[in-house]
Every structure is written in structure tokens, then in C-alpha cells.
Amino acid sequence: MSFKFSNTDQDIELHNFDGETGLHLNTTTLKIEANTGLPAHSTIAPLPTLKLNQVCVFKADKWQVLENNLGDIWDTATKEHSVLTELGPIPDGKTKLDPAMFENWNGSKWLLDTAAQLTDAQLATIAKIQGFATQCRKTIAGDADHYQTAAWPEKSRRAERILENTPRPSDIAILDSEALHRGKGETATVLAQIQVDKAARFAQATSVIDGMTSGAVSAINATTDIDQIDALLTTLKTEANQQLTELIT
Fold this sequence. Notes:
By secondary structure, this protein is of the alpha+beta class. The protein has 5 helices and 10 strands, in the order ββββββββββααααα. The chain has helices at 114-141, 146-163, 169-182, 188-222, 229-248; strands spanning 10-17, 24-32, 42-43, 54-59, 62-67, 71-75, 81-84, 94-95, 103-105, 110-112. Strands 2-1-3 form a 3-stranded antiparallel sheet, with no helix packed on it. Strands 7-6-8 form a 3-stranded antiparallel sheet, with no helix packed on it. A hairpin with a 2-residue loop joins β4 and β5 (62-67). α2 packs across α4 (188-222). The termini are far apart.
């Protein structure tokens, strides 16, 4: 359909389009004065019928139908996000479907990778277990820092030698000095017994925590049901707190 000049004013339905891209903008009815033509960037050519996600552009004196996929797109291999700024089909290897964590592209849609999801949950839970175990050990150690706890095994061996009457020449001198500075009137033998008992309690407590931690990690790694993980963690913490209460009271 082409525009015909007229000696009289005429009301005409106009389809306006972008001067650069040709994209249809709107349709209006405009009074065209006698012996004048159409405004720039407009046509009376009928609009084509459009389907979902289609637009029309005016090129080479006619309407062309293009796909409208403008906006967010994702790489189906890397999940990298980008923005599509040109009309037309979605590029190969891209999709407008937003991927979730642990999903992989199967050629037409994102599918949940349950194995990856389970592994991630297991690793996160094991990290929580190890952190909880560390806090338990700190509770057991009390005010002692890691330098002090690291010295406990050697102090225990020295104390055992004294109690077994097989001390090295320096053992009694070391404990006599420590007992003196403690200011509690203790002999080297009394202090040796205190240190042996303390080391035994600490070893027992940490062995319980270490054993429970190892068992919990094994249970987490063995589970195939992600819904069981939180329950396993809760059970561990409950049992550990009970054991901890018994060990420090």
C-alpha cells in the first residue's frame, strides 16, 4: 500500500518507526493536510501479524519480522551472564533461562545436578563440624593457649618420669621451679601428679571429640540424601555437648 497525495485533508493511520533501527514504535491516526506527504519515519504499510517475542522493523520499504530476545542471556556452558542488545535469534550456546546453582544445561533446559549439590552440602557441613570440634577443644583447654596445650605432652612425660622414680637430671629442677612460681606450696611430686591427671583428662576429652568428629565426617560423606545432612549435624552437636558437659564437670 502506497500513500496517495490528495487535494483535501485526509485522516490516515500511520505506523511510526525508529529512524535508525526501523523498529515499530506506535500507531496513530494523523490528519494529513492537502497536498502534503507523510511525516518522516512513518508508513501506511499494514503491520504484519506478530507472535510472542516478535517485533517488526521497517527496512527496504517493507516490514520485516524479527525475534525479540533483548535482555539478559546466559551461556549454557559457563553460566556467564550477558545482555543481548540486538534483535534476532538467541545466539548458539546462549539461553534466556536463568540458571540456578548446581544446574547444568541439557540442551533445552537447566537440570539440577544433585550430585554436585550433595557434595557442596557435605563439604559445607564438614567445615561446620570441624569448626565446632575446634570450639570444643578450646572449651576443654580452658584458658590455655595453643602454646600451652602443645607443651602438655612433654610436661606429662616429665611428670610421669618423676612419679616413676626415673627422672632425668633436669626434670625435678624444672618442676621445682614451676612449683615455686605457682606459689601453692606444692612439691615437685605433687605438681607432677597434677600435671599427669590434667594431661589424662585433656587426652580423654580430645579423644572423645576427635572420635565423634571422625565418625560424623564419615557419616556425612556416606549419606546420599541431602535432607539427612542437617539432622546428622544436629545429632552430632547434641551428643558432643552432652559429652563435653560430662568431661568438664
